[in-house]
């Protein structure tokens, strides 16, 4: 099979139709070019971070991006280091404002707690609780969130049962745990 490297892509050089303009507007592309430009720059910063040598051993947890303000918040555990400075320098080069939010627990601490929770599922403190999923990295909670359902009816309110379970799991793991009701997440 051969192909012509100089051939124009299908539709190249032709004006967009009103139907294609309307479709682009409906999915958020048309009229939002500036937002997408900012989003792409934030994505470029995320790619830079992911490729940094030593990022996994640093205090970096995650970035919380705000394309409307062209800003990102680095969630960080521990002291600033050369990796944090490299991220700030790259963000400055891209025109992105950076804030650093100090977190009490590092990424490895949170992942270790989530792994321990999976190991406890259906036994011990979780005998009457079916875990549907575990949220490890959240922008608004410095800990892990366990989402699921109580297997057998509970005495009292769901909120009180969830709170008691969260307190017991926090004590067991040494990392804050929140318990929330939620159905099993399934990909279609």
Description of the structure:
This protein is α/β, with parallel strands linked by helices and 188 residues long. The protein has helices spanning 18-26, 33-50, 82-94, 107-120, 158-173; strands spanning 60-66, 71-76, 97-102, 129-135, 144-150, 177-181. The chain has a 3-stranded mixed sheet with strand order 1-2-3, covered by helices on one side. A 3-stranded mixed sheet has the order 4-5-6. The radius of gyration is 23 Å and the shape is globular.
What is the secondary structure topology, with strand pairs?
Elements: H1 18-26, H2 33-50, E1 60-66, E2 71-76, H3 82-94, E3 97-102, H4 107-120, E4 129-135, E5 144-150, H5 158-173, E6 177-181
Parallel strand pairs: 2-3, 5-6
Antiparallel strand pairs: 1-2, 4-5
Helix pairs in contact: 2-3
